[in-house]
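Hi W.,

Here's what went into the run:
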Amino acid sequence: MAEERNSPETVGLMAGVSPEAIRGAARLYAAGPNSAIYYGLGVTEHSQGTTAVMAIANLAMVTGNLGRPGVGVNPLRGQNNVQGSCDMGSFPHELSGYRHISDDATRTMFEKMWGRPLDAEPGLRIPNMFDAAIDGSFKGLYVQGEDILQSDPNTTHVAAALKAMECVVVQDLFLNETANYAHVFLPGSTFLEKDGTFTNAERRINRVRRVMTPKNGLADWEITLAISKAMGFEMPYAHPSEIMDEIARLTPTFAGVSYALLDEVGSVQWPCNEKAPLGTPVMHIGGFVRGRGNFMITEYVPTDERTGPRFPLLLTTGRILSQYNVGAQTRRTDNIVWHDADVLEIHPHDAEQRGVRDGDWVKLDSRAGGTALRAQITDRVAPGVVYTTFHHPDTQANVVTTEFSRLGDQLPRIQGHGRAGFTLQRSQRVAA
Amino acid sequence: MSLVHEIDYGTPVSRAEETVNLTIDGHAVTVPAGTSIMRAAVEAGIQVPKLCATDSVEAFGSCRLCLVEIAGRAGTPASCTTPVAAGMVVSTQTERLKQVRRGVMELYISDHPLDCLTCAANGDCELQDMAGAVGLREVRYGYDGENHTKQAKDESNPYFTFDPSKCIVCSRCVRACEEVQGTFALTIQGRGFDSKVSPGAAADNFLSSECVSCGACVQACPTATLSEKSVIDIGVPEHSVVTTCAYCGVGCSFKAEMRGEELVRMVPYKDGKANRGHSCVKGRFAWGYANHRERILKPMMRETIDQPWREVSWDEAIGRVASEFKRLQEKHGRLAIGGITSSRCTNEETYLVQKLVRGGFGNNNVDTCARVCHSPTGFGLRTAFGTSAGTQDFDSVEQSRRDPGDRRQPDRRPSSLRLTHEEAAASGRAADRDRSAPHGPRAHAACRGRLSPAAPARHQRRDPERVGPCHRHRRPGRRDLRAHLLRPRCLRVLGGRSWRRSATAPRPSA
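Here's what came out:
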């Protein structure tokens, strides 16, 4: 920390923030008495996302801002159940509760409960699935409730991967972009039409309750059961509460969770087990779950995405209040009155250099591809940076983004989401 | 099954540790210090008539219905603005109070349309309830004088209607927009008889104003003035079920209010620990996609992706999936297929997909969209702390940056915090910590803290979409100017049409 390269003066130059501001923020945070950090995808959706999170954890630990109300590290999970889908072990290398698939004791417990032997080798991550598909070794995909073609970076690569597969099964409410490459489409159910639970950004498990019969005939869980049965792996559940009971039996952090408990108290934050029968609002009181906190040195590694004379601008992508993510749901409601198209926000200086006026169509190109958007002149973005949302498929914002995996072999590979070198020019609108 | 009933305590809860004993209508009551008499009465099972008070916002004292008599004190103080005191003896129903309350209701009804039977709020209207509660039998003023019963409606917002004819200027909407949401889109324009709710400048309607359509005002409105269009169309719901929103990571709890199997409206659930009775436009209003014409309701198949889709039965579709996956594994190996789970489906559903892949497909080719967003969080926090998730609950923000000598109550504004931070997340930027003083008296969650407030992010233009702090690029001068402009607004006279009242300075802020 005392080294020159980590001083506010050096870092300030790189970050575009004054050293006084850095010192001021540091003192404000450290002085407390209670300082909390909240962060979103602007921190994680980078090739340095993991180091950024660990740096945040370091800050909290070094200033003692953990283990009581009013402090802590608070990632703002975006989706209604992204926390839950991680908790449930939908990772190629982890079972529910973040336990590694190679751990014999854990795997044996699951094998006994499921009556099947399980592979101890980690499987393919999403980017690997695409690569393997293009290589010819990955041929079939069951996608539930996700539009990978619209939401993942480098659309061209994803499209090529999907095209190379022989059986793409999409389970969703609408014919989304991914469904363009699908062979079987299974209509899904909305949250109003099924029972279950969602886990929010504060680890709170909340009940989802069915208020109407599924218009498509089956709840999403019933569809997965049907596929499983047809493939010879019958799973005997009459109601989602039984699924949660099984999760509780297999997952120590969920051991105390049941629908009966949720009906009684409304919601619980995991861990919820014998040690914490009503859940755990604040974690790491008195000590960390892992024992002692782990400080990790987080060197600054500049992103490989760089601007240069050919691609002088940086693009970041984000979201807006009235639309949600790829807009699959919100574009099909009256919310379109607020945001019926994605626009490109550009600083007046950059606009003037290129002869771009407010409302002009512009063509945006990167190494990966190009797209066209209407420009909106604003000083909300810094000079040299442009910003757009990706709520509308015809924007194809992700055609121009690239994947940039995490540097460091033992760390999971993360895709950079945006932040590529870009060039921009005014254009006539090409035929839609 | 019936509508989930939530008690409205009238004023927010007090978190003081010390308690006070008093007597209300002969009942002994013990409540935390700082509780209003109105709330203490409700806790004792006594309903004091009220119109401008609701427990999601601070007491206001403008409707003059909740007056009580206190032994040893002159006059008829408002129970909403009067805190309890040790040994207090309160009467909520006396002859004098009856006369006063009837008089107040007469004034309200003298300037209100009398179309209850065809009104959207029939059966769900606090004005109706209060007219009944005070025993109103006649309105001696008659209906011939100047009135506001024929005003034009503002139907610009796609989800709710603003009908000024029914407005009693209780200011609940203005206060909800300030205190619950923190947007400050609404105000009372004019004074006295000319007071009216306004979403901004004279030329603004709700859609063109700073309103973010969160619906807090609609929820707060005691009459039909601010009504959901779905209620106007369908009618009052007959049963409700508590469920959770399917949009973002806040996970707001809602009461899904139904007529049979038809969803009438989603109303935030006050006991929802994540949202405490508030929500944003998406969860509250944008659920229509479930009935959209583009929704696919039947399974479909095709041999190759350049062929058109063919509708098939469930058995056929499922059969095809199973046989194809088996065939692909036989031909290309066990690892040739996989699954991607959803971050929007339930825990149980996600668990089943990974179980299908591991137990059914026999491999570990399963992944989730968190790969591209929060897997750094999972890995980073597990490495540092041992748990792949946030360390607190949302309420924790109320205790951030409490000065050790601060004995004031923490501000109960978790909802606007959640919108602050979800908006921050939505704009893809971390919620920066901002060093300037909070704006206005009540804009922000944990006012004692220095959190980035949601409202100032909109200072740049009147576009509710441009949310999300962008602090690197904010010029200090503008922020100060906005703070400066806001204070005079808060000092404006706020009051019902029928009563003159003196200008009230806002309560001192953090």
